[in-house]
Amino acid sequence: MNEKINKLSIIKPDDWHIHLRENEVLNLVLPHTVKNFARCIAMPNLNKPIIDYSAAKKYSDLIIKKANSKNFRVFVPYYLNHNIDLKNFEIGIKQNYFFGAKLYPSNSTTNSKFGVNNLEKIYPALEILQENNSPLLIHAEKVDEKISIFDREKYFIDNELQEILKRFQNLKIVIEHISSEYGAQFVNDSSHPIASTVTLHHMLLTKKDVFNGDTNPHHYCMPVVKNEKDLIALRKFACSGNKKFFLGTDSAPHDLKYKEGTNNIKAGIYTSPIAIEMYTSIFEEENSLNNLETFSSINGANFYDLPLNSHKINIEKVNWINPDFTEDSKIKIKNFMGGQKIKWKVVSN
Length: 349
Ligand code: DOR
Ligand code: ZN
Prior knowledge:
The chain has 349 residues and is an alpha/beta fold. The protein is built from nine helices and 16 strands. It has a single domain (6-314), classed as TIM Barrel (Alpha-Beta Barrel), CATH 3.20.20.140. It has helices at residues 23-36, 53-67, 86-94, 123-131, 152-167, 181-189, 228-239, 275-285, 292-303; strands at residues 7-11, 14-18, 39-42, 73-75, 78-79, 101-103, 136-138, 173-175, 194-198, 211-212, 214-215, 245-247, 312-321, 325-327, 332-334, 341-348. Strands 5-6-7-8-9-12 form a six-stranded parallel beta sheet. A three-stranded antiparallel beta sheet has the order 1-13-16, with helices on one face. Strands 2-3-4 form a three-stranded parallel beta sheet. Bound molecules: (4S)-2,6-dioxohexahydropyrimidine-4-carboxylic acid and zinc ion. Zinc ion binds next to loops. Zinc ion binds at residues 17, 19, 43, 250, 252.
């Protein structure tokens, strides 16, 4: 039945996980998000992580000013670390300067060196989150040289997350960019208030697209993409309409100089320019276009107790070629699927 659908109108989506960065990169990437998303969670792993509410306010004010769009909204989580100023944290949570808090295990990904390697240090902050019905957003990977990068999610869930769930039974939790069948099944089965964002690249790539002889830096992200069975499971949960799974691109731009010609490749894939279009293609392939709006525009808002957006976007089956780069005279960012034919297009919003 879905083959016949070539036009869709859905509630304007939200991107519940994105990296907007600062300065020139912010200027370049922000229009892609503002065009197709009503709201977003802008991650706090800036070069100077966001650890006080005045910095969070400054960052969100800056984004709103640059977005220059009446209805666009942005939320900024606190960056959990080992030296939390609890008073500032509590004010920031209560006054909504922080949209919950983000847990980066230290050295798990880009700009995570100030993250957490001893969970006990953050328990007082988690108490505050729980009391205020404010969410804990987790980069759920256990970093240990004895653990393969492909197993980090499983080990985090078994060793760290279980401990958090036991201690904070009412804490609202999101496992960000869920990447494995094990993780998605865990979220599905849990009776805890827990949900997951799902990226489009974790539903399109497997590890062969990254590590095949040389590493492909443009497909390298954290958590790394995994096996076919993981991709299939993520597609199944995301496309099923299951309310625990919702849209978060984890679109993570890096200038070409941090991707090519370096031994220290930064993790992150820039997907914003084609995000809605490729989620639509995936849902079409899974014969689930009827669940696209639930995933992209409803489940996240409901999980976060936020109203649904009132505007709509129209998506049509139109072929177009995604440009190779998003660039200006100073910055050059490789677009995910740059140079490739895209089959859907957002035509108005
Ligand atoms: O690949 C990633 N890039 N994963 C993350 O968790 C962070 C992000 C970034 O900031 O570049
Ligand atoms: Zn991220």
